[in-house]
Amino acid sequence: MEEEAPKEMASRLKGRKKAPPPSFGWRWVFPLFLVAAVVWSGFLILESGDHLLNSQDGETLDAITDPTAPGFEAFVEQTWSMVIATEDDEGDLVDLVVAAVADRELGGGSVLIVPPLLNSGSGCEQVPCDLKTIYEEGGLSALNTVLVNLLEVSFSEEVLLTSSRWAGLVSPLAGVELTLEEDIVEVTEEGAEVTLFTQGDVNIEGEKVVRFLSSSSDDEQMARSKSFWDSWLRELGEAEDPLEKLPDLGLSVVDFLSVVTSGETGVISFPMEEAENFFVPNVERLQDLVVDLFPFPIAAVPGERITVRLINGVGDFTLNSVAQKQIVSAGAEIIVVGNNETFDVQESKVVYRDPMVAGEAEVLGSQLGLPVEFDEFISPVAEVTILIGADFAAFS
Predict the structure, then answer these.
(1) Burial classification of residue 45, based on how many CB atoms lie within 10 Å of its CB (0-12 exposed, 13-18 middle, 19 or more buried)
(2) From the CB of residue 154, how many other CB atoms can be counted at a distance below 10 Å?
(3) What does the pLDDT look like over 103-126, one tens digit per residue?
(4) Backbone torsion region of residue 228, taken as left when φ is above 0, otherwise alpha when ψ lies between -120 and 50, otherwise beta
(5) Residue 384, Cβ neighbours under 10 Å: how many?
(6) Residue 162 above 90 pLDDT?
(7) Which of 168, 190, 212, 213 could join 95 via S-S bond, C-beta 3.0 to 4.6 A?
(8) Average model confidence (pLDDT) for the chain?
(9) What is the distance of C-alpha 256 from the center of its chain?
């Protein structure tokens, strides 16, 4: 009985008719139609990149990509910045800079030399409160917190450099060349003097970078650090592509420095003054400096700065930079820049749509010397819109 089952199955298969061949339409027309549909949908997706949907009346509008054209608007990227700390082989902080990119596409930027012996000032329960001691007790995280409070902005990231990392960073160069006005001498525990670097033209290479940065006395440290950074960044900037003179280490600081040195670069000393035998920040000069360094700052505390949509209503784009500095100085955060639909706006003003921010808008308007209005139909992308009118020159 079991042997007859396969024979019966074979008999059934023989009795079945073969399926008819597919028609011409299914075999050729449908596949061609499917291919055409895929190609057309791809074309529509590409075309849609040049159009925007008007949420009020449902009409499709052309996307405006010209930053000088009426109606153009774009979100801004917050200033790319970095805290770069250097420690010696004993783990002591010997160099500290805060660097910021001027423009992510065009490059350039500034490096602020911060002395490790700077007294942090506020929040200090017992001396010493200098940055070197703060780093010793709390590491890079504690140091970053103090700098955020000091400058009232946040940084994109923090980087710690050691002797080995510095050796890697300067390895594509024969060394960083600079000129010393006098010998750098180290006094040993036994009282003997050892010359580390000789007066004149010197070449700082490899792990000698940390030794050079840590060999300065307190009053010379910032000047010595400034001379090193200035020489090194200038050397990098002389290349058509700064990455040619930077190593492929996979470190974010490499990409950051390549952008900074691909444009105009400035090295600045931290503004400070002496008070009660301590070096403390010169607050007024520091505030002005921060505005220049961070045109689009990251709020030190999320939500602390009121967000601004800055709209040019006259077509004079030289006013934008003036307005940006005034807005940032007033404690606001610009997240969108753009142009009005027409360039015939006469009155500059601060406009808000949420009654919850009316008080902040009034304060901002008072600081900028601009009238404040409520408009429930103004763009919701920022808490307030600041419109630059023909009268803006009177307020700047």
Answers:
(1) exposed
(2) 19
(3) 888 899 999 999 998 987 655 555
(4) alpha
(5) 25
(6) yes
(7) 213
(8) 84
(9) 9
- Could you tell me the CA-to-CA distances from 334 to 182, 225, 288 in Å, in that order? 47, 33, 17
Nearest to 269, CA basis, from 74, 115, 392: 115
pLDDT at 91 over 80: yes
What is the radius of gyration, based on Cα positions, of the chain?
32
Q: How do residues 1-50 score in pLDDT, each as one tens digit?
A: 444 555 554 454 445 455 456 555 555 555 666 666 666 665 555 555 44
CA angle 310, 313, 333 (to 5 degrees): 10
pTM: 0.79
Element (H, E) at 266: strand 265-269
Task: Calculate mean pLDDT across residues 258-274.
Answer: 92
Backbone angles phi, psi at 218, to 5 degrees: -55, -45
CATH 3.40.630.190 occupies which residues in the chain? 81-293
Q: What are the tokens at 271?
A: 């503004």
pLDDT, position 1? 44
The top-level CATH class assigned to 300-395 is: alpha beta
Peptide bond into 128 cis (omega under 30): yes
Task: Give the list of residues 6+ apart from residue 380 with CB closer than 8 angstroms, or none.
Answer: 353
- Does the pLDDT at position 160 exceed 80? yes
DSSP string of 287-337, one letter each residue: HHHHHHH-SSPEESSTT-SPEEEEEESSS-THHHHHHHHHHHHTT-EEEEE
Q: What is the pLDDT of residues 122-158, one digit of tens each?
A: 555 555 688 999 999 999 999 999 999 999 999 999 9
Q: Looking at the chain, which residues constitute the CATH 3.30.70.2390 domain(s)?
A: 300-395
For domain 81-293, give the fold. Aminopeptidase (3.40.630)
Q: DSSP label at 355?
A: G
SS3 of residue 272 by DSSP: strand
Residues ≥6 apart with Cβ < 8 Å to 320: 310, 312, 337, 388
- Please list the residues that pair with 338 across neighbouring strands: 73, 311
Give the amino acid at 56. Q
User: CA torsion, points 108, 244, 268, 323, in degrees to nearest 10?
Assistant: 10
pLDDT band at 62 (very low <50, low <70, confident <90, very high): low
